[in-house]
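STRUCTURE:
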């Protein structure tokens, strides 16, 4: 690799790790956030592409086809991660930081077949932080990724068996990443800040081929972000840019009524992380390439099953279990958020306060399977002259709460 002559080793290192951190783990495989639905989290998102809650439109815009009057849904998720890094030199650190992840949905029927909707979500995010002085400080201290996605959608009910949907995504993406410029205690930070706005789309369909059964398929497109910002090391600031394309996602859902009170569901979700490949990083002024980043991710997969039971007319109980194949591997796992494969356990309740108002709560536990090795040594593109090795343990608890409200006599309400 050939670097711009003004780029120091610390500059090179932060650029490399900045981009690898942007493609890093949050709460759903790499930096994806699945915390978009309190009802859906009650079943480990089993069957969401085949359901008709407003928040299920995140995975499948055809879910809006069941809306018969103006509705809103709000979701709030508290994420409590426990992410321990255990360097081989000693001194275990917990890099997890709690986060609040909200989401909001609204929809209204235009005709008896056509529905318009809007979602405001945060599909990507990351928040980790280490102590100022620790064994791997030149490879990472703080990582923050924030996104917000506005998604207007339309759903059309073709007939009693088939509904389709489509939408446009407008997404803001921001990252701040820091690491020490050296190995001495209290060495100052190098800081990268960058942001971007990108545009994508989503599509979906739902099919009811037999009594009580629904099959749903939803697609969220990739979004290309031309990240623009600055890399700052003590007394020097460099303009930096990189093109990052978030992965597209396909969710396949199945829901089946067993009785008037009991339903089972399942999900297979595929996320195209392997499309990211190598990310070149450029000096925004000179246009010269600072480095090329072989991220070497594989595609992510989630498999989940769940069920729900109407305890009474007012209360529905649900539970689910999922298994996630993480996009990172032993080769690509890093210190900013080391992700192994995960087992996901969920449970939740819905309480229908009235025909107009419903409250949802859910508890999800994501358990890392095994101790993920983190190894950075000579020959690794992240290597900064100091070999580093550690193991990691990950457990994430997510508490979700939501509300749904329906309104009569509202603009655009068909009924």
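SEQUENCE:
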């Amino acid at each position: 690799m050939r670097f711009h002559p003004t780029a120091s080793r610390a500059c090179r290192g932060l650029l490399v790790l900045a981009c690898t951190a942007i493609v890093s783990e949050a709460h759903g495989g790499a930096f994806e956030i699945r915390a978009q639905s309190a009802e859906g989290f009650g079943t480990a998102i089993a069957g969401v592409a085949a359901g008709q809650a407003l928040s299920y439109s995140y995975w499948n815009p055809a879910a809006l086809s069941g809306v018969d009057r103006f509705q809103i849904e709000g979701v709030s998720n508290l994420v409590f991660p426990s992410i321990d890094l255990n360097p081989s030199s000693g001194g275990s650190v917990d890099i997890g930081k709690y986060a609040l992840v909200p989401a909001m949905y609204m929809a209204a029927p235009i005709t008896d077949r056509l529905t318009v909707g809007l979602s405001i979500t945060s599909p990507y995010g990351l928040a980790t932080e280490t102590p100022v002085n620790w064994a791997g400080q030149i490879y990472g201290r703080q990582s923050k990724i924030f996104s917000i996605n506005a998604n207007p959608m339309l759903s059309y009910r073709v007939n009693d068996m088939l509904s389709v949907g489509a939408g446009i995504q407008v997404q803001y993406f921001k990252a701040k990443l820091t690491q020490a410029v050296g190995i001495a205690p209290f060495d100052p930070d190098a800081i990268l800040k960058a942001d971007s706005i990108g545009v994508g789309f989503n599509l979906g369909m739902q099919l009811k081929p037999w009594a009580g059964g629904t099959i749903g398929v939803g697609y969220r497109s990739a979004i290309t972000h031309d990240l623009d910002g600055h890399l700052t090391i003590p007394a020097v600031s460099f303009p930096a840019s990189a093109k990052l394309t978030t992965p597209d996602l396909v969710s396949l859902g199945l829901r089946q009524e067993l009785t008037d009170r009991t339903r089972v569901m399942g999900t297979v979700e595929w996320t195209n992380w392997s499309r990211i490949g190598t990310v070149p990083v450029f000096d925004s002024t000179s246009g010269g390439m600072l480095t090329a980043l072989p991220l070497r991710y594989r595609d992510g997969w989630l498999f989940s099953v769940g069920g729900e039971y109407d305890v009474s007319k007012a209360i529905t109980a649900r539970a689910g279990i999922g298994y996630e194949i993480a996009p990172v591997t032993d080769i690509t796992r890093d210190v900013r958020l080391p992700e192994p494969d995960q087992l996901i356990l969920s449970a939740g309740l819905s309480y229908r306060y009235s025909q107009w108002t419903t409250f949802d709560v859910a508890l999800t536990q994501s358990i890392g399977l095994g101790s993920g090795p983190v190894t950075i040594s000579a020959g690794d593109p992240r290597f900064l002259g100091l070999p580093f090795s550690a193991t990691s343990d990950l457990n994430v608890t997510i508490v979700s709460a939501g509300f749904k409200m329906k309104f009569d006599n509202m603009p655009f309400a068909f009924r």
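REMARK: Residues 282 and 289 are 4 Å apart (CA to CA).
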